[in-house]
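Hi C.,

You asked whether I'd gotten around to modeling the 186-residue construct. I have! Everything is below, sequence then structure, no commentary in between.
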Amino acid sequence: MIGTGDIKKGLTIVINGMLYQIVEWQHIKSGRGSAQIKLKLRDLRGGHTVEHTCQSGEKFERAPLDRHTVQFLYNDGDLYYFMDSKTFEQTPLSKDQLGNAIDYLKENLTIDLLTYQDEVVSVELPNSIELKVIQTDPGFRGDTATNVNKPGKLETGITIPIPLFVNQGDVIRVDTRTGQYLERVN
């Protein structure tokens, strides 16, 4: 059991038999009464988000998740196939199970597969990955204002804002938690 003082983003808890991952949390202290904790939770089985408010000091059951290192192999329609790096067992996952991780999947990417009681509930990407820019407009000389960005389409199909000096064919590092450009690799 964990208390409200131990709550942090990304923690997986069980509420009324449902498995939730904490997306955001906020401590609210009003003038009267006790403090409250407002949680934004993602249902790991259903994929939707809910809000839950509780009193400060309430206890939650922590869900013990097992991690398995897997490698992304390929996708076939709506299924994405991963191979366990120790047992070589292949696991298919749907788009709903992967969520936003689809935007960063490329062949041979190593990620963590999270399971709860032998049921796959989520995947965890590395904090940053390197992706190739496949389409962007050229930056023009004289466009030197700070923090000016242009759209850049990456090899996985996602489009993110990138700086003007990044060109088509460059490899960049992207933060998988926020979807933001971090740096140019080459």
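If it helps when you're writing up: The CA atoms of residues 65 and 117 lie 8 Å apart.

Thanks,
B.
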